[in-house]
Amino acid sequence: MAGFFRERGGGLELFVRLTPKAAADRIDGIETGDDGRSHLAIRVRALPERGAANAALERLLAETLGLPRSKVSVVAGHTARLKTVRLNAGADFVLNVLGGRTTGG
C-alpha cells in the first residue's frame, strides 16, 4: 500500500487522483501513473467548479475514515486532478480503515 501517502507533521498526506462528474462518490483503489508514482483513485459526483469537487473529496474521506471534516483538507493541487490531501490522523488508523477499500471497489 505504500507510495500513495507520506507521514508528515504528526499526520498523513495522501496523494489522490480525483475524477469529478462521476456517477457515484467512491474510492476506486491504488493506481500507478505513467510517471511511476502511486495515488489513491477517487471519484466524486460534484463538478470541478468553485471548489465543489475538492469539498466532495474532503467529505468522502472524512465520512469513510470517521473523522471530523476539519481534519481533512486538500493542501495541494486545488485546480488539478492530482492532489495532496492532509489528514490529521495517525497513519496506522488511516491505513487500517482504507486497507479494505484500496483493492478496487
UniProtKB/TrEMBL annotation:
Signal peptide: none annotated. HAMAP family: UPF0235 (MF_00634). The lineage of its organism: Bacteria, Pseudomonadati, Pseudomonadota, Alphaproteobacteria, Hyphomicrobiales. InterPro entries: DUF167 (IPR003746), YggU-like_sf (IPR036591). Gene3D superfamilies: YggU-like. This is UPF0235 protein C7I84_14640. It holds the Pfam family DUF167. Belongs to the UPF0235 family.
